[in-house]
Structure formats: C-alpha cells, structure tokens
Amino acid sequence: MKTIFMRHGGSLRLLLLCWLLALFGAFMPAQAAGEAAAEQVARQQSQPLNNAPVWREVRSGEAHFTLAKGPEAGVLIQSEGNTWRQWRNGPITQYGGWLLIIVPSAIALFWMVKGTMKLHAKPTGRKMKRFSAFERFAHWGTAITFLLLAVTGVAILFGKHVLAPVFGPEFFASLLVAGKLIHNYIGPVFGVFVVLMILTFLRDNVWQACDAIWIRRAGGLLGGDHVPSSRFNFGEKTWFWIGVTFLGLTVVGSGLVMDFPNYGWTRADMQLANMVHGIGALVLLALSFGHIYMGTIGVEGAYQSMKTGYVDETWAREHHEFWYEDVKAGKSGHPQDSVTGARS
Amino acid sequence: MGRMKFLCDAERCIECNGCVTACKNENEVPWGVNRRRVVTINDGVPGERSMSVACMHCSDAPCMAVCPTNCFYKAEGGVVLHDKDLCIGCGYCFYACPFGAPQFPNGPSAFGERGKMDKCTFCAGGPEETGSKEEYAKYGSNRLAEGKLPACAEMCSTKALLAGDSAAVSDIFRDRVLRRGKGLEAWGWMTAYGAEQKEGAK
Lengths: 344, 202
Known about the structure:
The complex is a heterodimer of chains A (344) and B (202). With 344 residues, chain A is an all-alpha fold. Chain A contains 13 helices and three strands; from the N terminus they run H-H-H-E-H-E-H-H-H-H-H-H-H-E-H-H. Chain A has helices spanning 2-25, 30-46, 52-60, 80-114, 133-162, 164-167, 169-201, 210-216, 234-259, 267-298, 302-308, 313-319, 321-328; strands at residues 65-66, 127-129, 310-312. Classes of the chains: A mainly alpha (344), B alpha+beta (202). Chains A and B meet through helix 2, helix 3, strand 1, helix 4 and helix 5 of A and strand 2, strand 3, helix 2 and helix 3 of B.
C-alpha cells in the first residue's frame, strides 16, 4: 500500500510539474521562472523546512514580480555591480593613472633628448596644399571635442582623488556637474566627427608597399631619419586605424550605451560599457599624447600644415617624399588642387 | 546608537506594500521614485515568498566607493546618507548597488539627465540642519533624530520588516527562527553586512 501510494504521489507530483511547465512554457521569458516555481512547490512538500530554491532565486539576479516601476525593480540582488566596482576602482583607476603619468613623461624625456625634428634643407617658400578645408574641419572638430571629453572624463575617474582635495568637495562637485553635462552632450558630437574623420582620411590610410620600409626602419629611428612615405606614413596610419577608428568607435559605442539609458539597457550592460569605455578611452588618450606631440612640438611644420592646410615643399619632400613626387607629377596626390603655388 | 540595520523576514512578509506606502507618505518622495519596494518570488504559486527591499545601509557600501564626487557619507549608526548638492546624477551608484536602491526622479533619461539621486535614508534625513525644512524637502523625515525608527518598519503589519540596532534585530529574528524551526535566512545580510564596517569610508 505504502509503495503504491508513494508511486502515486510521485506521479502526481510529476503531473503537477508537467502542468506547471506547460503553463509557464507558453511564455518564453517565464520559462526559467516556471521551473524555479515548480521546484519551490516540490520543495514545500518534500522538505518544508528547507527554503533553498527561494534563496537561489534571491541571488539569481532574475527579475521577479513587483508593483514598483523602474529599471530592474524586480531584481532583489545583482552581484555584478561589485565586480564592476572592483574593476573600475582597481585596475582601471590604478593602471590608467600610471599610463597617464608614464606616457607624457616618456614623451617629455624623448623630446629633451632628441628635440624637435627640424627641416634639413632650407624652406623653399613655395607652399603645397596638404589638407582641404573640409579635412581640417573634420580634424579640428574631432580634436576639440576629444580634448573636452578627455578633460571631463579624466575628472570623472580621477577627480575625487586629485581635484577634490585641492578645490574642496563643493566646488569640485559643481565642476563635475558641468563636466558631466559637457561629457554627455559633446560625446555624440565627437561620435559624428569620428565618423567624418574615418570617411575623410580612409582613402590615404590603406596599406602601401612603402609602409614596409617605414616599419623596417622604425619610422626613421633606426638608420637615418629620412624614410620616404606616401601622404601618410605608417605611424600615422597606425594612429588612424588603432586610435581613431578602432578605439574611437569603441569609446563612442560604449559611451552612447551609458549616455542613453532610456533605451532600457540593464545595469550589467552599462557596467560592461563603462569598463570598455574606461579602458578604451585611457589607451586612446595615451596614444593621443603621441599624436599631439608629433603634431606640435615634435615635428617642425606639422602644426602649421593642419592649421593652414599648406606645407612648404621642403617639408613635403623630407617627410612624405612619395606624396611630394605624386603631387609634382600631377598624379592622385590628394587633395586634388595640390599645386596651388605660393599661398603666403 | 548601535549599528542600524534592516531585516526582512520572508516567512512573514505578506506583500501588503504597507512599507512602500508608509515610506512615500513619511518622506514625501518625488513622483516615480520608490525608496522601498516589495518583490515577490514565485508569485501566485504555493510557497511564494515576498521581500521588502530598500537601501540596506551596507557596511562597505558600493555606492560610496564608486561615487565620482564622494557625495556619500556614513552617519551615526552606520547609516549611509548622501549630499544631493554634490550629486551629479551619473548613475554609478545605481550600477554598483546590489539592491537597486538608488532612484532617480527623471528615470533613465537621454543624455543621462537622471536628476539628483534619491534613496532610503533610514529615516535619518541628510546633511542639512536636523529637522529643518531644507532637510525635509531634499531627504524627507529625520525620525532617527526624534528617537523613532524608520516608518516602513514601524508600519509593518506583520512585523516582517525589522529596523534598528543590529543586536536587537538579530535577537528578535533568532527567537523567531528557534520557535518556528525554519526560515533562518536573513536575506541580503551577507551582501550588505558581510564586509567589514567602514566608517566614513571614501
């Protein structure tokens, strides 16, 4: 009798399970919850004093029923937040901080040893057009928005360690209120400029045979300093592909996730976006120091080329010989109206 | 004052949402913000359990650790409070909090325009002068200063939600568990109070 009853009890329970599974199985998202509910029902009978299924549910991070409205209101405990906290307050802040100290220091040391790269021959006084007005617009738009984002972003990550002790918590907080507004509204503008930059400069940043020579001689660091290159040398192409394109799009994409939480991202999505954004932005900033150095005090004439759009013919021959020859020969030589004669 | 803690007894909570209502009424919480909410697991199924959840005033509070402006501080009794004047509405406390406690008056808005964070204060007000109009407008009641416990726990019809000195709360709960011989899990306690207490941690 006892065994028959137990068998019946077992099959009844099985039936109940099947019924519950069928009931909840109809709703795809509710399926997991349905299984958990069935487990809880079974546990009520088999071990009424042991409520383990409920406690597993509490820790699962799944959303349950609640009357409260709000993002993930049905979740009791989400533990990913702590992982994010450890990453952000740990390696991202620490290694990122060192990166922002070491890279500029190394560049400063390099500059003190090597000094500015000057022209060898005398400037001819004849100018060549290197950047069109639109190219300069794309460049400076990206540059200005990037600097605004870099300053405000660095303040959001490091400000409480560096600026708050100097300015005091109230003034620092009002700075960050402005900083956050700048960061959140300029961010999408930067995104537009990054896309413009990529489209504008893509054509002259593809691999060319002469890039192999540049790599072999480490851009002139090994064996003499004159390495012929096309409009952009391999160093500039690396900055274009890794810096502007890959890291630029990475920080823009991850930034947009955090900037528009109204699209219903979960906390886990935004934590991941924040980590990708932090790492990407810090590496991009470190690389940008190199680019800014080369574009200002590192190379004579480089800043003028992006400011005015024109370079001296000597500069063109010494830094981008193949491009110079192309322009002189009337070939491709981007931009098209390269040989415009003296501008000044 | 001892260490102040919340404890929700899942064996007793009947999902009446009295705590939610009491909190909203006591603190005149902004529209769209629920400092406290009740979550039901396996709703409508035998063995369902409900739990009231708000800021647990963690020992090593994650919100405090990630805030870019250090707007959080530990008040007397280990209560985690924040200064709305310093809040920039970045939402990092919401990313970090295990309990989903930080709330924003504008909700998840475009360009991160969340407004200033609002959360449970353990009915202990905020950094403004105790009992002042400004304190009430920004943070709600300061019942703790009047020698009262949080309104949610005092209103709880089944005394599922306990608030107060850790030792007293633990004693009540331990006694219950011994009498009924089950339901010994003080949910969220390891998450909130498992780490070492940090006083005024930055």
